[in-house]
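Q: I'm writing up a methods section and want to include an example of the input and output format. Could you take the sequence below and give the corresponding predicted structure tokens, formatted cleanly so I can copy it straight into the document?
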Amino acid sequence: MTRDDLTCLIIEDSLSTRMILCKAMEELGFTVGEAENGQVALEILDGGAAFALALVDWNMPVMNGLQFVRELQNRDEHRAMRLLMCTTRGELSEMLEALDTGANDYLIKPFSQEELQEKLRLLGFSL
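A: Here is the clean output for your methods example:
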């Protein structure tokens, strides 16, 4: 992916965590959008916004991260968006469920900036 593809939608219900993730992604050169749950994220995407990447929390009200990933699989126009689950859920069965549902990778909170950068590289982003 080129520098022009550095757009990220952060889907996280915790305002403080969302702010930390936004700052981390902006420091890596990403243009960032925010949503407090999966339903708001879908509304943003349905409104015509396009992102190369979404950082998706699992535990959220209204529509959780797994529901968001599942719903996105039904929308051809967003299939190219890379999905990185960023969650406190760390059981192997949960990781496999997220990946089987359509997430491209999985990152357990808390994580370091270096761990985030490594996942982004694995997803094809040149930083």
